[in-house]
């Protein structure tokens, strides 16, 4: 009998197919004792397994490229964490086998993450995946993962590790549904980059029977179980109409009455540029530069290496706008040479701009590399700092840009509520704002963006979050400066119209979302966007806000 389940839609599109479950296995090794003579051998086995898993993760990242590469390289660093390996060796010296030493050391680190605060709890899935890969290699058993199938299917899992998501074959995996995860989890971001329909945080998803037919709507978050033949045909027709509308939509982003809203792409490196160009990005609204710094956590990359990577992106958008975020290290992106290892709550500690101001030589080197990379190009380079809290932070970043003679606009990311509430003070120091709605929601609601059980508070439709966005946009308008959105909120076509109504001046998103947003804007006038924004802010809940905006825009 047909029934409807609802999770959180994180990647547009509709997928209809039979369910296949992600392979699972109990990878807890037996408790065994090894003799003193066997300790060196077991320690060597552990080291070899760690190195092999790290190399495999890096290789998968190189194949996937873009944002996936940065995520998987971060996992490789996690596998080779020297403190973790030291704990493994200590446990082996106490008589544990290599596999049991790895299992117990990772279990202890898992507890530390939980005790460090909810922000890092979302990294547990990544940590568990690394542990399972190392233990599987030591036990000589296959790593549980994506099922083998000759026929396309919808993948179901409790959660998907980045290493699995990054290499999904879109010709076989029609879409995926997970029981855990959130709208800004690693897997959600990678799904959007791939253009695979996906729904996360769907309670009871793993209880669906193997082989049952489901229809997954990655936009609405609905999963129809056992839809009738007629319903399947209707969904396919609607999906075809949607694809036709997307194909007919081209050119720059604008409302139906001609109000221009530049549509930009979020990229993680040169590998993401082709998709951005293919989907009609008018530039780059968020160029994450962390991928360069993950190659070697012990030291910063040289300027020449940085120049080469930055220039590949900059030269792809002649006459366009490319907004580069300087290194955002700390919290879930620790770097050995930069970030302290003993912070009680890294999410609220030294991260982003705070890290760079403590290591000004790293910031100066990156700014110099960007200046050199832009030499002789017609691109409009803009550079912004992450995790700006107030005008004092903004002033320090602007001073660093001026010190190296950077010929570019410099701005601030609004990810902390204080920066939104006091945006006027920030704008006295910099030339533009860019709203990182993922972290802004996280800090506004004290809700880790990686924890699926907190999805309600991560919802970008929360009226309180819309109020913060409006405060920043109003301040920018008063100052005659721009205020864009580069968080995942911009990838929701309906919310993109509301953001435009709130006064946001540009929208940046994963490349695959650009056609959907362009088509939605093209159907709405600026006045309707503004009315939809007013209706959403007047609501009390995220669900009511979305429904109110939809009613306004559907009735125009």
UniProtKB/TrEMBL annotation:
GO biological process: phosphoenolpyruvate-dependent sugar phosphotransferase system
InterPro entries found in the cross-reference section: PEP-util_enz_mobile_dom, PEP-utilizing_PTS_enzyme, PEP_util_AS, PEP_util_C, PEP_util_CS, Phosphohistidine_dom_sf, PTS_EI, PTS_EI-like
Domain PEP-utilising enzyme C-terminal: 252-523
GO cellular component, one term: cytoplasm
The enzyme's E.C. designation: 2.7.3.9
Cofactor(s) this protein requires: Mg(2+)
Active-site residue numbers: 186, 486
Alphabetized Pfam families for the sequence: PEP-utilisers_N (PF05524), PEP-utilizers (PF00391), PEP-utilizers_C (PF02896)
Principal location class: cytoplasm
Gene3D superfamilies: Phosphoenolpyruvate-binding domains, Phosphohistidine domain, PtsI, HPr-binding domain
Localisation: Cytoplasm
Residues of the PEP-utilising enzyme mobile domain: 151-221
Coiled coil: none
Binding-site residues, Mg(2+): 415, 439
Entry keywords, A to Z: Cytoplasm, Kinase, Magnesium, Metal-binding, Phosphotransferase system, Sugar transport, Transferase, Transport
Reactions listed under catalytic activity: L-histidyl-[protein] + phosphoenolpyruvate = N(pros)-phospho-L-histidyl-[protein] + pyruvate
PROSITE patterns (UniProt xref): PEP_ENZYMES_2, PEP_ENZYMES_PHOS_SITE
Similarity annotation: Belongs to the PEP-utilizing enzyme family.
Protein name as annotated: Phosphoenolpyruvate-protein phosphotransferase
Origin organism lineage: Bacteria, Bacillati, Actinomycetota, Actinomycetes, Kitasatosporales
